[in-house]
């Protein structure tokens, strides 16, 4: 059907079954003969074929043991409504030649959608091969570029990294894989993640030979990681997102701005100091250990647990439902969830009489009275302070 491909918008795919031996001319004759006059002159198949709005009907049919089965394909350059009407009319055919027959339309295929998918996939291949620049104002091109950049994430001695880490004279040290991916989306290919609170030896060794910028989140966890980096690695510059923000959620513009505003390590040593650690747990108090165990189980699930006075499960929900559910909850002693603790959530928990609010990260500036706001790192650190 290559002769119809230039104007074809849709392909009608149908199956045919006949109680007898029939051939292609029989099927084509039945299609034209039994739909004639059915839909009026505007949708008459013979006229549509003459005008080129319906292409050559393709029939593939085989006969076996006195029965015939096969497929029918009809190219259409009509709009989708008219094409659907033509497709439905095929199912009114009940005889082919002298034989009883049924035709069932399986689907209507959008040929242009296939072409668009081909364009995107081929563009990915071309961009990957020739590293051509993207034009950000074109939506389809931006989609292709983002896909290529994300696919470029690699590893450096087991750590998530951009493809430029090995060869670049400078590196950007971030906290996790999601941060590396976000920098790749912004076109920055020399980032490496430390993946935890302990700085890997591979990162320490890289900072000895390359200009190193620490780009960590503006929260307590980021402060602790920065403090360790300054102690064990040769950091030259420090960049931070806006207060309360993480690297993985920044837009391209915000990433570029933060890196442009990086400061020399000498200034950062005084400017970025860790916040005071949470007070140690009293000896014999096993509640924090139990909460840490629950937090470890929830990590990576995007779920939250509401716990009673005995730290027994009241309810497990999705993190996105936490605020709404907490508003209606009663007798909740602790809330443990795989997410970021906000000031709003902390104040709501305090209003409901919650004693412990525990998440992966915290953006709480002032903890409400009678509420302990803790992160997983806080719980782990307290264990060693006991």
From TrEMBL:
Pfam families: Toprim_4 (PF13662). GO terms for biological process: DNA replication, synthesis of primer. It catalyses: ssDNA + n NTP = ssDNA/pppN(pN)n-1 hybrid + (n-1) diphosphate. Its EC number is 2.7.7.101. The keyword DNA repair does not apply. The keyword Coiled coil applies. Residues 169-243 form the Toprim domain. Keywords: Coiled coil, DNA replication, DNA-directed RNA polymerase, Exosome, Magnesium, Metal-binding, Nucleotidyltransferase, Primosome, Transcription, Transferase. It comes from the Archaea. CDD domains: TOPRIM_primases (cd01029). Residues 281-308 form a coiled coil. It is an enzyme of class 2 (transferase). GO terms for molecular function: DNA-directed RNA polymerase activity; metal ion binding; poly(A) binding. Belongs to the archaeal DnaG primase family. Forms a ternary complex with MCM helicase and DNA. Component of the archaeal exosome complex. RNA polymerase that catalyzes the synthesis of short RNA molecules used as primers for DNA polymerase during DNA replication. Also part of the exosome, which is a complex involved in RNA degradation. Acts as a poly(A)-binding protein that enhances the interaction between heteropolymeric, adenine-rich transcripts and the exosome. NCBIfam families: PRK04031.1-1 (NF003108). This is DNA primase DnaG. It comes from Hadarchaeum yellowstonense. The lineage of its organism: Archaea, Methanobacteriati, Candidatus Hadarchaeota, Candidatus Hadarchaeia, Candidatus Hadarchaeales.
């Amino acid at each position: 059907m290559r002769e119809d491909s230039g104007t074809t918008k849709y392909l009608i795919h149908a199956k045919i079954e006949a109680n007898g031996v029939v051939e292609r001319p029989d099927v084509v004759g039945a299609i034209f003969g039994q739909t004639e006059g059915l839909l009026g002159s505007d949708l008459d198949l013979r006229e549509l074929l003459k005008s080129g709005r319906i292409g050559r009907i393709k029939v593939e049919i085989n006969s076996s043991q006195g029965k015939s089965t096969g497929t029918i394909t009809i190219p259409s350059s009509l709009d989708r409504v008219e094409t659907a009407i033509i497709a439905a009319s095929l199912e009114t055919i009940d005889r082919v030649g002298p034989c009883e027959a049924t035709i069932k339309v399986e689907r209507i295929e959008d040929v242009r959608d296939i072409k668009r998918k081909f364009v995107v996939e081929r563009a990915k291949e071309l961009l990957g091969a020739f590293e051509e620049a993207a034009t950000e104002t074109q939506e389809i091109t931006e989609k292709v570029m983002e896909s290529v950049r994300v696919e470029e994430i690699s590893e450096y001695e087991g750590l998530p990294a951009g493809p430029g880490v090995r060869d670049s004279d400078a590196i950007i040290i971030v906290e996790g894989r999601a941060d590396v991916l976000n920098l790749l989306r912004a076109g920055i290919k020399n980032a490496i993640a430390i993946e935890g609170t302990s700085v890997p030896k591979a990162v320490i060794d890289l900072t000895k030979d390359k200009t190193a910028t620490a780009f960590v989140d503006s929260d307590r966890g980021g402060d602790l990681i920065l403090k360790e980096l300054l102690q064990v690695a040769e950091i030259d510059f420090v960049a931070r997102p806006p207060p309360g923000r993480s690297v993985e959620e920044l837009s391209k513009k915000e990433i570029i701005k933060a890196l442009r505003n990086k400061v020399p390590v000498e200034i950062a040593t005084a400017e970025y100091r860790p916040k005071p650690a949470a007070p140690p747990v009293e000896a014999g108090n096993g509640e924090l250990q139990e909460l840490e165990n629950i937090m470890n189980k929830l990590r990576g699930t995007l779920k939250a647990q509401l716990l009673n006075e005995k730290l027994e499960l009241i309810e497990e929900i999705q993190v996105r439902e936490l605020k709404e559910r907490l508003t209606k909850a009663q007798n909740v002693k602790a809330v443990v969830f795989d997410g970021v603790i906000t000031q709003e959530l902390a104040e709501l928990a305090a209003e409901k009489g919650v004693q412990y609010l525990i998440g992966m990260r915290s953006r709480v500036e002032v903890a409400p009275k009678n509420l302990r706001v803790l992160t997983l790192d806080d719980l782990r650190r307290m264990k060693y302070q006991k």
